Amino acid sequence: MASSPPIIVWFRRDLRVTDNPALYEASQRGRPVLPVYILEEDAPRPLGGAAKWWLHHSLSALKRELVCLGAPLLLRRGRAADVLAHLASESGATDILWNQRYDPREMALDQTVTKVLVGLGRRVESFKGALLFEPAETTTQNGQPFQIFTAFWRQCLSKPEPSRPLPRPAKLQEYFGLSGDDLAEWRLLPKKPDWAAGFATSWTPGEDSADARLTDFVEDRLADYLSLRNRPDLDGTSRLSAHLAFGELSPRQVWHAARMNGAFPEDGFLRQLGWREFSHHMLHQFPAMATTPRRARFQDFPWQDDEELWRHFTLGQTGYPIVDAAMRALWETGWMHNRLRMVVGSFLVKDLLIPWQRGEQWFWDTLVDADPACNACGWQWISGCGIESAPYFRIFNPLIQGERFDPDGQYLRRWLPELSGLPDRFIHRPWEAPPTILKKAGVQLGRTYPPPIVEHAKARDRALEAFARLRLVH
DNA sequence: TGAAATGTTGGGGCG
DNA sequence: ACGCCCCAACATTTC
Questions:
Q1: At a CB cut-off of 8 Å and minimum separation 6, what does A390 contact?
Q2: A74 membership: H or E segment, kind and range
Q3: For A160 and C13, how far is CA from C1' in angstroms?
Q4: How confident is the model over A6-24, as a mean pLDDT?
Q5: What CATH class has A7-130?
Q6: A249: helix, coil or strand?
């Protein structure tokens, strides 16, 4: 027996059933629900490798959730407009619901989809679930977008608090009769080599584990967040970034979970949500920032862009232990601590004079939490070419950062086994260790571990000089 | 969400 | 007792 026409819910980066406004609304209408995820062939930017791994597991988790709710997830691939138009005619659906996304390139796509569907006599509705505050409602007094985080966040905090998360919908009516792709066919997982083998020991994608991690964080570690958040060796952060990036959690859920466990909006943790918010609003308002420095004069920066140095950087073979440990952790786990993102970012851009866009692309490929807005904002911030950003002359010293935030070298020993035998005193600076100590630790500089590929003091001077020249020209 | 250079102050060693 | 130097500790400025 054929079902009556369903309501289509198009899942994108909102791979959750709780606090999912589009799904919730569909569940309220007393009709079958047809949830669909589309592998978009016309996506503005193909997902990176690590994100694909996450997507695979997140989709399989979402499939399980939706089976429990009674409406299995349909997988299709192609251009979103074609797929949805086809689905609408196959199923007779008149209503297509989704949660709004804010990246202008994706919004352009959604507009096309809308036009096509409306042209076919369908109704399209979009809902708000991806952000805490609406970009259109968060502007300066004369209606301009904010460019400075503190002003932006102050205004956000003066508004009513974000609304409470919606509940998980009750049982959904299944729509029968359509078949979709098999997730495995999408080949989102790496085969040979399987570089993602280590990911699973660090992560469990999906809404259930996102919720568990959130609960664990707000109950046990939120209180120490401020004092530990910069310590990669102590696991002081929430590690929710990938769950948020794929929408397995909504920022509202994180907000209220933290609030109920004693966080104040002014506190450090919610402020981090503020940065996420700010990044998304910024990319929404300034689409070009994905690839172009917001300060125009950085267009002419005299980059060196040396392939050999780049290779050392990506392999975690720069000779600066904190940089190398961070880059190898990124490769092995698909994630990097935020403090270390700043350290390696500063190193790439300022010590090696390699354009931030290359770093941004590398992160895009290797981070499980790769998010166009946060990634571009972060790189513009660290390279000094954003409007609100670290001034260019703010150059991190990898040695000082390492010793300050990994004082016992615990993090280094975990990711750089070849240095693990060095005493605390030298592990951040193996090139200063006396030969006897190196020998005892089994370290051969230049063989088991590289000497520094640049001398930081000189690299710093060179970067400042390049920056000074830039200022002279403009 | 920086680091280095430079300036200032004050205590202690020492002739 | 005094002036001088050194240097650590801290503050300010500069990149």
A1: A381, A382, A384
A2: strand A74-78
A3: 42
A4: 98
A5: alpha beta
A6: coil
Q: Which protein residues have their Cβ less than 7 angstroms from some atom of strand C?
A: A 391, 393-394, 464, 468
Q: Which residues pair with A98 in a beta bridge?
A: A10, A126
Q: How far is the CA of A273 from the C1' of C7 (A)?
A: 45
Q: How far is the CA of A453 from the C1' of C2 (A)?
A: 54
CATH for A131-165+207-285? 1.25.40.80
Residue nearest to nucleotide B4 (CA to C1'): A457
Banded model confidence at residue A473, pLDDT cuts 50, 70, 90:
low
Q: Is the separation of the CB atoms in A34 and A93 below 8 Å?
A: yes
| Domain range summary for chain A, segments of one domain joined by + | 7-130, 131-165+207-285, 296-469
Q: Mean pLDDT across the stretch A303-319?
A: 97
- Which nucleotide's C1' sits nearest to the alpha carbon of A467? C15
pTM of the model: 0.96
Of the listed ranges A23-27, A152-156, A181-185, A192-196, the one predicted with least confidence: A192-196
Superfamily classification of domain A296-469: DNA Cyclobutane Dipyrimidine Photolyase, subunit A, domain 3 (1.10.579.10)
What average pLDDT does the structure give for chain A? 96
Q: Which among A118, A71, A82 is positioned nearest to A126, based on CA atoms?
A: A118
Question: How wide is the angle at C-alpha A284 spanned by C-alphas A238 and A363, nearest 5°?
Answer: 50
Strand B footprint, Cβ within 7 Å: A 149, 230, 272, 275, 338-339, 342, 381, 390-391, 393-397, 400-401, 404, 456-457, 460
pLDDT digits (tens, 9 = 90+) for A367-424: 999 999 999 999 999 999 998 888 889 999 999 999 999 999 999 999 999 999 999 9
Q: How many Å apart are A87 CA and C4 C1'?
A: 91
